[in-house]
Design brief:
By secondary structure, the chain is α/β, with parallel strands linked by helices. Helices cover about 40% and strands about 15% of the residues. It contains 14 helices and 17 strands. The longest helix has 21 residues.
Length: about 425
Amino acid sequence: MTVPEPSVSSPTSPLDVAAIRAQFPALHQQVHGKPLVYLDNAATTQKPQVVINTLRHYYERDNANVHRGVHVLSERATAAFEQARRTVQRFLNARSEREIIFTRNATESINLVARAWGDWQLTPGDEVLITAMEHHSNIVPWQQACARTGAVLKVAPIDDRGDVIMEDFAKLLTAKTKMLAVVHLSNALGTINPVEEMVAQARRVGATVLIDGSQAAYHMAVDVQALDPDFYVFTGHKVYGPTGIGVLYGRESMLSAMPPFLGGGDMISSVTFEKTEWNELPYKFEAGTPNIADAIALGAAIEFVWGVGFEAIGAHEARLLAYATAQLSAVPGLTIIGTARRKASVVSFVLDDLHPHDIGTIVDREGVAIRTGHHCAQPVMDRYGVPATARASLAMYNTKEEIDALVAALGRVRALLG
């Protein structure tokens, strides 16, 4: 596939949402006899037809292993797989395709760094700094790394709005900080962290930086050369791509120095019973048969997003978020959890003393799909003194009418349970 240049759209020009929605088959169905309103995009986005077609094409025409065969199918599969890597490289503006590692998801990418970098670099008394809004995937691997190495996990607090308290962050960032691992955009609160400032502060104390971009990557353009982290991770299924494929960007000098995460086929250059020599980047970190079809389909998803354009997507989603915030704030008894100064596409809320699972069950009967629970961010729930929240999360294909449908469904919740 040829990779188009990212389109440039005026931030004020509206998207042709109807044309976009027409390309997503899953959106055109009924649930419980009602048109589906899909507002669970922070969990996973729906897939455009081009992604589905790409998966089918691979399995129907090009199904073969990569890097190992000289027959036509293997050569076609390898070419498409490596083209997808180059697409991801451009998506993140990485310097080299050698800096792009395919994994199963962002969780595996973080675990790779926590193991391969953490076990290599962390020593007793070193500190790992995270924030109080992290997803469990950016908490648990660092807890485990600290337990293995004797390092200490530190947590930068957040205020009532859901913003990191930067004064406390600066105090916690010291010469002992060896890793700053921070989310770009919170899945539970919608907060957009000031990662540029955070990275700059980390550089002043010599800390390594990992940014979890799982939510950010499908809402905004990401430039790793401008942000300057050592590692940036995201997951394919939230960028309108398939499940089971993730990305780790790593600074080439860092990846070259790190030991491999997994051992096996394709991550070696030579093996004897006495010793093994590692393959070159990026293959040193891609042991075994990779997720070929889904990597290729991730490339197709990125091309689709480029075709729409991040400026237009961002402007549309910002208008939707403002509308959703206003409409939901007017619902009696509803409290929004997370009102950060910089925020994107997530509205988490509680409604009176009703359990979010009950809310989610009733709105589902009205055809509206939202997420309920702790969103793999239990410390965030503890910070706000709630067991769980209901969460509506937006994507490029959502509309104001769908937000109205959510508000009407919440009226049904109050009628039944209030």
